[in-house]
Each structure stands twice: as C-alpha cells, then as structure tokens.
Amino acid sequence: MASNHLHKESKIEIISASSSSTSAPASSSSSRYENQKRRDWNTFGQYLTNHRPPLTLSRCSGAHVLEFLRYLDQFGKTKVHLLMCPFYGHPNPPAPCLCPLKQAWGSLDALVGRLRAAYEENGGMPETNPFGARAVRLYLREVRDLQSKARGVSYEKKKKRKRPPPPPPSQQLSTSVQLPLPLSSPPLSGKAALPFEL
Questions:
Q1: Which secondary structure element, helix H or strand E, spans residue 79, and what is its range?
Q2: CA distances to 35, 58, 114 from 75, in Å
Q3: Nearest-CA neighbor of 121 among 129, 110, 109?
Q4: 15 φ, ψ to 5°?
Q5: Could you read off the pLDDT of 61-93 as tens digits, one per residue?
Q6: In a designed cystine with 48, which of 20, 55, 69, 180 is the match (CB 3.0 to 4.6 A)?
Q7: Closest listed residue to residue 67, CA positions, set 55, 82, 58, 79
Q8: Which of 56, 36, 35, 58 is nearest to 47 (CA)?
C-alpha cells in the first residue's frame, strides 16, 4: 500500500515538472494567473515539506488545507475587528485598534480556486482534491460572513442589471434610408425610351 502512495506521488511530481515547462501563455492575464497559480502551488508544496511530520500530497486532506489557510493569516493585511472592538462593523474606523490582521476572504477564496485547479493539473484526481473538500467550502463561507460583519462590508454578489428587452421589429427604427417610390408613368417606346442616341 505504501508503494502505491509513492507511485502516485512521483506521478504527480513528474506531471508537475513537465507541464510547467511546456505550457505557453495565451495572453498576459492568463500568464499572470498561471504564474500566480504556480507560485501558490510551490508555496503549498513547501508548507507540506515543512509540516511536522512532513506530509505527502497523496495524504493531504481538507483538514491540512484549513491548517494552511489559518497559517497564512499571520501574513494578512486586512484588519478584522473583534466583537468587543468599538469599530466592529465599521467599514472606515476613525482610529487604529488592536484587532488582528488576517488574510482577506477574497484572497483566500481566489487562492483555494487556484490551488484546486493546480492540484488537478498536476495529476490529482478531482474526487480526492483536498481544496474542494466540504470543510474548506464551509470555512471560506464562515470567513466571508465573519469578515463581512466585522468590517461592515457586504460580500454579496452584485446582481447584473437586466437590459430591457429589445422592442418588437415593427417598432425598431430603421437605419436604412427609404427612398420614395417613383410615380408611375406610361412606359416609353421607340427612340424616346433610350437616354442616348443610336
């Protein structure tokens, strides 16, 4: 059984090495996304290596992903007010406070999305993807709700404004110029019918 895990692990690492060298960026935005995804994947790999005891990717679970996300909070830059803070729920507090800095929900959500994609691109099976675990989704929802209340910021998805339906064809303005129909006149015959001499 242990050799099976080692085989899976080496397969994931081999795919990882070959896919990063052969992929060509489609555009600057996808290239930036791919670079960020690669950096995030390397950071997570480093986290697994430094974990005590060290973890292999095949043994990584949603619980380890949660541990990683909580570990990242120490590098956060977003002030999340505690319930007893006088600025709890204020989007723009008038003075500094001692509340902790944490990773913003949006950053964590985007990070999990990139790592979820990187896991599968590097040979992981979607069914065993620890970044898609129910516990991770619930944690992200909890962080979003907590930060929304603590910071006084709404994270609700903005609804797209519906465009009014186009008017029926009979009411649409025509963009082509309609010329008046010529008055009917009796057809000309003989030489008078031709605009030039024969």
A1: strand 78-79
A2: 20, 27, 19
A3: 129
A4: -60, -40
A5: 999 999 999 999 999 999 999 999 999 998 888
A6: 55
A7: 55
A8: 56
